[in-house]
Amino acid sequence: MVRTQFEFSASLEDFLPAHRRGRPILLERDYPGAVKDAIESLGVPHVEVDRIVVGGQVVGFGYQLEDGDQVQVYPQAGNEYRLVPPPLPEPAFVLDCHLGRLARYLRLLGFDSLFEGNYHDRQLLEISLEQDRTLLTRDRDLLKRKALRRGYYVRATRPRRQLHEVAGHFRLASMLRPFTRCMVCNGLLSPVARQAIEEYLQPRTRRYYGDFLQCGDCRRIYWKGSHFQRLQRLVGEIRGSGVPDQRP
Length: 248
Description:
- The chain is α/β, with parallel strands linked by helices.
- The protein folds into 3 domains: 2-74, Beta-grasp domain (Ubiquitin-like (UB roll), Roll); 92-180 and 228-240; 189-222, no CATH class.
- The chain is built from 7 helices and 12 strands.
- It is elongated and about 75 Å long.
C-alpha cells in the first residue's frame, strides 16, 4: 500500500468536496503511479494545475509517487508558467454545448470563440489541439483528457457571471475589441454602405440609422439600435472589472 498526502491551493479546491477543502488529503493506493493520475483521481483536472511540489522539489506530471510523499498542488499564479502553457498572444476559445450564451458574449468583446450546440467531446478536443484554442467547459471529465493542453472549468452558472469569471482568469480586459465579431457565427465584421444592404433593412431601420456593419461569413447586418447601449454597458463592466449585472 502506497500512502501519500495531498494539499490543493486556492482555486483548485473548487474541485474538491466540501469536507476535503482546507486540509491535507490522505490517498492510499495499491500501486504508486504518476502524480498526474493521483491528482485527477481526486477530481482536479490537470489543465488547471501549474505547479506540483513534492518534498520541496518541483516535479512534472510524470513523477512516480513514493510511499510517504507529501504533495502540494498549485494553480497558475502571477506570471509563472510551469505546467500550464503560457497565454496565447491572441486569445482563442472553443466552448462546449452548455456555454452558448458565454460564446456570444466573448464574440461581442471581439474574441475568437467557436461554438456549435452539437460538438461532441472528441470534436472539442481535436479543435482545441489542432487550432491551439483554450477549451472552456462545464464538464470536469472532459478536462482530464490526457492530450488536452489548454482548458478551463467555468465555475459560474449564469452567463454574465461566466463572462466576468473568464475575463478575469484570462486577463482579457486590456485586449477587448468590442463589436468586431458576429455574435451569431464568430465571423469578422466590417463597415458596409447602406446602399449595398438597403433592400434587407426594415423601413424604420432604413429611416433612422446610417452606419452599418456586416459579417463577412454569414452576411448578418448590425447597427446601433436600441440594444446597443445595453451591450456597451456590458463592455464597460468588463473593462472596469465591475460587479456583473444580475441579469442572465
